[in-house]
TrEMBL record:
It is an enzyme of class 2 (transferase). Its EC number is 2.3.1.286. The active site is at 128 (proton acceptor). Zn(2+) binds at residues 136, 139, 154, 157. Keywords: Metal-binding, NAD, Transferase, Zinc. It comes from Keratinibaculum paraultunense. This is protein acetyllysine N-acetyltransferase. Gene3D superfamilies: SIR2/SIRT2 'Small Domain, TPP-binding domain. GO terms for molecular function: histone deacetylase activity, NAD-dependent; metal ion binding; NAD+ binding. InterPro entries: DHS-like_NAD/FAD-binding_dom, NAD-dep_sirtuin_deacylases, Sirtuin, Sirtuin_cat_small_dom_sf, Ssirtuin_cat_dom.
């Protein structure tokens, strides 16, 4: 049976989680979009812009990169600019602090924002890549973000092929990163899943590797094929801020 804590009982759930963290010798965190939304990431779909009619699944694809580079470039330039000035929230800092204290080992994230690293987390597996680092799709060399934003050609091979280091629709996931995340989850005595409804393949498979306890922190309850030891339903930032009090 799941144990669900929310609203009035959230404090009790947080204390339970703090105890689990202290008892666990190997804790891994898995985060999704819900972790970042509290950082007020602006919606890139403008109210009156033509972006409103653009389907990100179409544009954020290897097909658009190859067939319509100007559209691809404009889309990602805009996405990168909307993330400028977005800061980690308290929850990101709490996770970074727990890593420094040796209480969590790593974070696997579906987010491409880089906010975990910005908050100070070091051991982060970016399952879908990072939008603020740029590489050449032709020669694979890393180039400066400014080169991409300026619409320049690759400074190494001269091709017009610069792109963010994110996984595009139609592309394979970064297998090395996924294997490391899987291995860590297999070793974990505690897996804390934050801000993801785990609906998407293959990320919904990752918790199945866990042999220890599994905890969910999410703004709504979810159904999954695995049992959670406890579920904390509420805002990730607030729950993690509360958690900080009990893991000193
Ligand atoms: Zn190149």
């Amino acid at each position: 049976m799941d144990k669900i804590f929310k609203e009035d009982s959230i404090n009790k759930g947080v204390k339970n989680l703090a105890k689990m963290i202290k008892e666990s010798e190997y804790t891994v965190v898995l985060t999704g979009a819900g972790m970042d939304t509290e950082s007020n990431i602006p919606d890139f779909r403008g109210k009156d812009g033509w972006w409103e009619n653009i389907d990100p699944i179409q544009v954020a694809s290897i097909h658009t990169f190859e067939s319509n580079y100007p559209l691809f470039h404009e889309f990602y330039s805009m996405r990168i600019k909307t993330l400028e000035g977005v800061e980690p929230h308290k929850g990101h800092y709490v996770l970074a602090d727990l890593e420094k204290k040796g209480l969590i080992h790593s974070i696997a994230t579906q987010n491409v924002s880089g906010l975990h690293q910005k908050a100070g987390s070091n051991n982060v597996y970016e399952l879908h890549g990072n939008i603020r680092t740029i590489r050449c799709n032709h020669c694979n060399k890393e180039v400066k973000l400014e080169d991409f934003l300026a619409g320049e050609n690759c400074s190494f091979c001269g091709k017009k092929a610069l792109r963010p280091n994110v996984v595009l629709f139609g592309e394979a996931l970064p297998i090395d990163v996924w294997i490391k995340a899987e291995e860590d989850i297999k070793k974990s005595q505690l897996l804390i899943i934050i801000g993801t409804s785990l609906e998407v393949y293959p990320v919904n498979f990752l918790p199945m590797y866990a042999k220890g306890k599994i905890v969910l922190i999410n703004n709504e309850d979810i159904n999954a094929n695995y049992e959670f030891d406890i579920k904390l339903i509420g805002k990730a930032g607030e729950i993690l801020k509360e958690l900080e009090k009990y893991v000193e």
